Amino acid sequence: MTLNFRQLAALILTGGPALLTSLPAAADTLGDVRERGRLVCGVSEGLRGFSEQAEDGSWVGFDVDFCKAVASVTLGDTNLVDYVPLTAAERFEALGQGQIDLLSRNSTWTLSRDLMLGLDFAGVSYYDGQGFLLPALYGVTNPLQLAGATVCVVSGTTSEQNARHFFEGAGMSLEISTFAERDDARAAYEAGECDAYTADRSALAAERSLLASPDDHILLRDVISKEPLGPVVRQDDPVWRDLVRWTLFALVTAEELDLSADDTETTSLLGESMTEAFRLDPGWYARLIGDVGTYAAIFERNLGTQSPLELGRGLNALWTQGGLLYAPPMQ
To answer: pLDDT tens for residues 215-272?
Structure first.
């Protein structure tokens, strides 16, 4: 049994210490992963740049690389991952029910999700915002010009609610057409059933790259929300949460210090606390960098300007370079 924030608060207020003694013990996800010899990682059912299955059956993408990073740290092998594709509506329930060990699936960190679902967000791996994709021939440059439009959106995401709030707040009317699957939403948009398509800008960049004529469509620069995306774990295992969190910070730190797999003296020193806390192989940090690279390497090969998504670093640049990316000291 996993208690969410409200249940735990009610238990404390009504039952006191006597009932607290009956709380279930923390889970041991790290132990389960080691005993199983594989990491079970939830990803999207197919979002270019983040997680998609190649023709040979392998999985690639930004979120996939984070699954590989956690497998490298815990098991010493990025191949020891079982990928479970999940829709937006399925993802949190699958994690809460223990069907997966880790959710690495472009999920927005919100207060209600953090406090009410019995889940923990381990950090922010990508800073995003909700935007709009529409045909260039419309000449639209601002979402406030979309009054009366029909907008495609994937259900089970924050995008639908954000869009309704934004346009209602602006006193504008529009029709929102929802789809359970991202492929269906993109197909409806491309067929002209919707005037625009709204989602996280990174997701829209991926969708645009799959259209028959990507250059005929524009991604508006304006955003209508904050969408901090990151890996998610269950709330009943703080040890596993910390391992996932510090794996993310290790990737950011590796970029900050321009580390390579050959910098074994530095990586051993920086990784010492994690080595002791989680009983890791002393060479885990150098191996991690050799296996997946730094945060910069992961970003550039999956999402960067030379990838099909053609995204700049923007908010996801290091804090020293005008972005929000920041890792606590590894000491």
So the answer is: 999 999 999 999 999 999 999 999 999 999 999 999 999 999 999 999 999 999 999 9
- What is the maximum span of the chain, computed from C-alpha positions, in angstroms? 67
Per the listing, tokens 């791996």 go with: 125
Distance, C-alpha 160 to centroid of its chain: 18
* Residue 232 host element (H or E): strand 232-234
Per-residue HEC secondary structure of 135-164 comes to: EHHHCCCCHHHCCCCEEEEECCCHHHHHHH
What amino acid is encoded at 193 in this protein?
E
The full set of domains in the chain, from first to last, is: 5-127+229-321 (3.40.190.10), 130-225 (3.40.190.10)
CB atoms under 10 Å from CB of 215, counted, come to: 8
Distance in angstroms (rounded) separating the CA atoms of residues 210 and 213: 8
